[in-house]
């Protein structure tokens, strides 16, 4: 948690989103976000598509993955400047976020419950 119990927030970019909405984000196991999620694994992740006037927020449980084939499966060479030793060098980890709730507004797709965009569409995931 941040100052006076406020949540810690930072900008991240996901590496992959599975068909079941599982999200993977690269990080260092020593990063503040990794340390935070080990202590408090319930997180939220938001993305925006300005062209579509859309956003989605995913709420779920995050897990830090530091070893195993999943690191190789989601490695992208564009990450090498941040993780010079690569996916098996010890400084690359994955955050696996399995959402249980998704909030969405997408004006291009017509997803904007009344009152016209002031309320998001909500889906509970299994």
What can you see in these coordinates?
The protein has 126 residues and is mainly beta. It has helices at 32-39, 69-73; strands spanning 14-17, 23-27, 42-49, 54-65, 93-106, 121-124. Strands 1, 2, 3, 4, 5 and 6 form a six-stranded antiparallel beta sheet that branches.
**Element pattern in H and E:** EEHEEHEE
Total helices: the number is: 2
Biggest beta sheet attributes: 6 strands, antiparallel
Low-confidence stretches: none
Number-wise, the strands total 6
Sheet/helix structural class: mainly beta
Radius of gyration: 16 Å
Roughly how much helix do the residues carry, as a percent range?
Answer: 10-25%
The fraction of residues in strands falls at 35-45%
Shape: globular
Distance between the termini: 27 Å
Overall mean confidence score, pLDDT: 89
SSE order and pairing:
Layout: E1 14-17, E2 23-27, H1 32-39, E3 42-49, E4 54-65, H2 69-73, E5 93-106, E6 121-124
Antiparallel strand pairs: 1-2, 2-5, 3-4, 4-5, 5-6
Task: Describe this structure in a few short sentences.
The chain is mainly beta and 126 residues long.
List keywords for this structure.
2 helices; 126 residues; six-stranded antiparallel sheet; 10% helix; mainly beta
């Amino acid at each position: 948690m941040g100052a006076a119990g406020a949540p810690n927030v930072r900008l991240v970019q996901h590496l992959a989103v599975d068909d079941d909405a599982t999200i993977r984000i690269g990080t260092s196991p020593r990063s503040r976000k990794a340390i935070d999620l080990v202590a408090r694994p319930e997180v939220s992740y938001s993305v925006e598509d300005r062209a579509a006037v859309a956003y989605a927020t995913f709420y779920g449980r995050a897990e830090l993955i530091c070893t195993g084939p999943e690191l190789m499966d989601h490695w992208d060479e564009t990450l090498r400047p941040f993780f010079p030793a690569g996916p098996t060098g010890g400084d690359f980890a994955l955050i696996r976020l399995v959402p249980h709730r998704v909030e969405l507004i997408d004006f291009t797709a017509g997803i904007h419950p009344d009152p016209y965009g002031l309320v998001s569409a909500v889906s509970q995931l299994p």
